[in-house]
Amino acid sequence: MTAFFLALLGAALVNNLLVLLPAGADAVQTRPAQLAVHGPASALLIALATPLGWVLFHGVLVPLQLDYLQLFGYVPLLAGLAWLTRIAVCRSERAAISLAREPGDAARSLLQAGAALGSILLAQEQSFLHALAQGIGGGLGFWLALKILADLLERIDHSAVPAAFRGGPLWLICAGVVGMVLLGLQGLAPQ
Question: CA 191: distance to chain centroid?
Fold first, then answer.
């Protein structure tokens, strides 16, 4: 049980899929209004996809000696789960239904599936319990990093920022600051 908790904590804070790993980097553009849909949908997608990807790899591909086709198996899994998690989150939050129909949301869901793919690939050589902890912790950590970045960008929107730093440069600076904060937790990772 201690290994599960350490893997969960490590996936959420230390090996964060958004800040410390390049998976799901498109999600940095999420604003607080969009976070009502994108945050929970991404967290649910990662939490479901990681153990299911592990089962697909170890339960289907390895026994059939098709493990070299792992990415071709993960893409339909992630596309279906991205669609299902978006529907589940939008139905659970009535106010978020209008946000889910914005142009480009389907593409954003598939791009955020990159974080889930990264989580699957990180956990596929571990045990199922570790994959489950990686999925839950990775999803919660992804949502936490999105929330921190959205709050930071919201504060900056209400302050005087030079024109040269507005937009992309400021987003990169904010992501770097959040990454440095999470790098301070690097010693917590289980060896």
Answer: 23
- DSSP string of 101-160, one letter each residue: TSTTHHHHHHHHHHHHHHHHHHHTTS-HHHHHHHHHHHHHHHHHHHHHHHHHHHHHHTS-
Spell out the domain ranges in the chain: 2-188
| Nearest by Cα to 29 from 107, 139, 122 | 107
Q: pLDDT tens digits for the chain (191 residues)?
A: 677 766 666 666 656 665 555 544 445 455 556 666 677 888 888 899 999 999 999 999 999 999 899 989 998 998 888 888 878 877 776 544 444 455 556 656 666 678 888 888 888 888 999 889 888 888 888 888 778 777 877 787 778 888 888 777 887 887 777 777 777 766 655 55
